[in-house]
Design a protein that fits this description.
2 copies of one chain form a homodimer.
Chain A (H helix, E strand, L loop, with lengths): L1 H29 L6 H7 L4 H7 L3 H13 L2 H9 L8 H16 L2 H12 L5 H28 L8 H22 L7 H19 L1
Helix pairs in contact in A: 1-2, 1-4, 4-8, 5-8, 6-10, 8-9, 9-10
The structure holds a DNA duplex.
DNA sequence: CACCGGAACTGGACCGTACAGTACCCACAC
DNA sequence: GTGTGGGTACTGTACGGTCCAGTTCCGGTG
């Protein structure tokens, strides 16, 4: 028993994470069908056999790394939960939140991940659903809860907080995210993002205050 | 000469369009790397040789059909140019426009096309750019012009019409388009779309009237 | 500390298959 | 016959996945 565990902690576990990291990197870079198991093995400095010892096949490996990256979204979602509720600087605070959200979601890695999932949504429908629910809907729900607090304080006038959360993110993200999706390059300058955040927040407050 | 032309007009041209249609259908259905030239030839009821006689290789064929489908967007864009400007029913008119826009952009074919382009945006960056400019930016510019007319009439209060166009589409489309992107199924009922159109328009007018 | 046994790892050959692209032949029109 | 377009059969290659024979790691035993 003990022997087995310690063995797992050593070499095997190291190889396991090495494979995961390599796979993540290559998949994000070249897409699902663009990457071969040989590529992954090579980048992980591991033999192909070992890859197959840890992951039964390519699809399983892919699913694993995608779902693993989902966890990274937690930080972004936490952002949405913490909004200072001093009525004085509401616009300022919301703008800052908007700006952080923009930074998170236009991060090249995140964009690549979105691309990867969208690209394979028909082959791996479960992954698309899972990611949508765990990332998207959860984020919106969190933001809605935050808005509810603001509404309770009388800072905002909202009857459907979930809808308001949708509108807030739509105002902010529609442009830059679409651009990033279609034009590979993420050609947003910081100034662009500042503008999007300010303008989107202003429009949101005009509609919901 | 004439002989050649008539020959071209007959069999050859028919094959040409048959190939284009078949390719469009299969590419939309199975993605770029998911479709083989054999698939296309078979669906077009044509030999593979003939396919290669008309299109030098797979990439060229793909580019051709994607750019061809871009033209279909013209109808959608024209939508955005014609908005009745009687101040009485502004909200009603805008809501109708919103609803039509939603119908157009949640059309399964359009969604599939988006997916296709996004999925291959890193392999075919030109296609992504072209589509973004010809479809996206053109649509936004058209909508901005329409808003400008409304603003000139004093129906809306807008200082940056392009930004307003972005906000309008973001309010409307962020939710349904994202859902369609990630979850293969387009599970929008008509009632959903009605709601999105009404709510989005209301928020827009609250911000910009 | 030296050694042992077994599990995990390695490298590479290998199989089957799918697929982009090509060579060659046929059928029909002039 | 001569030329053009179409079809069949082929080539080369890349890749997912497996197999095997040898090697390394690591914990346990004397």
């Amino acid at each position: 028993m003990k022997k087995k565990v310690s063995t797992m902690d050593g070499r095997s576990a190291r190889k396991h994470t090495a494979i995961l990291e390599a796979a993540t990197s290559v998949f994000l870079d070249k897409g699902y069908s663009g990457t071969s198991m040989d590529d992954i093995a090579k980048l992980a400095a591991v033999s192909k056999q070992t890859v197959y010892k840890h992951f039964s096949d390519k699809e399983k490996l892919f699913a694993e790394i995608v779902l693993a990256t989902t966890d990274r979204l937690d930080a972004t979602i936490d952002l949405l939960a913490d909004l200072p509720t001093d009525d004085a600087g509401l616009e300022e605070n919301l703008t800052r939140l908007a700006r952080q959200l923009l930074t998170s979601l236009t991060d090249p890695q995140v964009i690549q991940l979105r691309r990867l999932i969208i690209a394979n949504a028909d082959v791996f429908p479960d992954l698309g659903n899972e990611w949508y629910e765990r990332g998207f809907e959860r984020g919106l729900a969190t933001l809605a809860a935050t808005f509810q607090r603001l509404a309770d304080q009388g800072l905002l006038r909202i009857d459907d907080t979930l809808l308001a959360a949708n509108h807030f993110s739509g105002l902010l993200l529609w442009i830059p995210v679409n651009r990033a999706m279609f034009t590979g390059s993420t050609r947003h300058t910081d100034a662009d993002l500042d503008r999007y955040a300010a303008a989107g927040t202003r429009a949101f407050l005009a509609a919901y205050r």
